[in-house]
Amino acid sequence: MTRYEVVPGFSLNVEAWGDGPPVVLLHGFTGSARAWGRFGELLGARYCCVAVDIVGHGLSDAPADLEHYRMEQAARDLVAAVRAATGRERCAWLGYSMGGRTAIAVACLHPQTVAALATIGASPGLSTEPERAERRRADEALADRIEREGVEAFVDYWESLPLWASQAHLPAEVLRAQRQVRLANRPAGLAGSLRGMGTGAQPPFHDALRSLAAPFLALAGELDAKYADIARAMAALAPAGSAGLIPGAGHAAQLEAPDAVFTAVDTFLRQHYLPEALP
């Protein structure tokens, strides 16, 4: 655990393990830097994993105001934390779900910092204002619920969603570890995340992807039909984009099929990142 004060009075926590070229890992909503499980272990055998607790999550600060939750500021803060942690200006970035949206924002807003980009179950945002407005209303209701009922009650609800049905076959210890990561979060942080950098609150990056210079791999579980379609659409937008589907996996493919996701990510990084990253 290392907390970096990226601007006065605001710090982000970074966990690092493994040796080799750095790969930045950004977790999903309710996650943390401790959420990567076996996939993180596999990646750490070949790369230096630089896992950041996104604002409002894990051991990073969870301020009451929304300034640091807004996607543009969150991206700037993450770039500063990664620079402090690695001493490098350019790294490979990989994000899952909310972390994938955030990694896309970093790549589009700070392209000089991203040598290669990979996402799992992610989107570039919502393309129309009516869609964004509807999502903001839903996220505001969810944020209110978290503040009213607390984290444990919310996690009970969250884990009951059909989105996670494909995880029913996972070992009990894997599900237990995931739940413990979720329960370690704070109501103010999760609510602030929804209000400040939720899918409806963030700007859409569809147009920006059309000029993305970095190689881009968009992954999704084959059972996660919505995000499989989004992965293919994003890959078609990006000049150096490609998409991959993970067999037998749902939304959290890195949790459900860690070996297959590692193979896909490692193949991508070996081709597009290692030639630049290694001396």
From TrEMBL:
- Gene3D superfamilies reported for this sequence: alpha/beta hydrolase
Which pathway does the record list? Quinol/quinone metabolism; 1,4-dihydroxy-2-naphthoate biosynthesis; 1,4-dihydroxy-2-naphthoate from chorismate: step 3/7; Quinol/quinone metabolism; menaquinone biosynthesis
Q: Which reaction does it catalyse?
A: 5-enolpyruvoyl-6-hydroxy-2-succinyl-cyclohex-3-ene-1-carboxylate = (1R,6R)-6-hydroxy-2-succinyl-cyclohexa-2,4-diene-1-carboxylate + pyruvate
Q: Which GO terms describe its biological process?
A: menaquinone biosynthetic process
Q: Name one GO molecular function term.
A: 2-succinyl-6-hydroxy-2,4-cyclohexadiene-1-carboxylate synthase activity
Q: Does the keyword Ligase apply?
A: no
Keywords on record: Lyase, Menaquinone biosynthesis
Q: What is its EC number?
A: 4.2.99.20
**Similarity annotation:** Belongs to the AB hydrolase superfamily. MenH family.
| Name of protein | Putative 2-succinyl-6-hydroxy-2,4-cyclohexadiene-1-carboxylate synthase
Which organism is the protein's source?
Answer: Tepidiforma thermophila (strain KCTC 52669 / CGMCC 1.13589 / G233)
| UniProt lineage | Bacteria, Bacillati, Chloroflexota, Tepidiformia, Tepidiformales
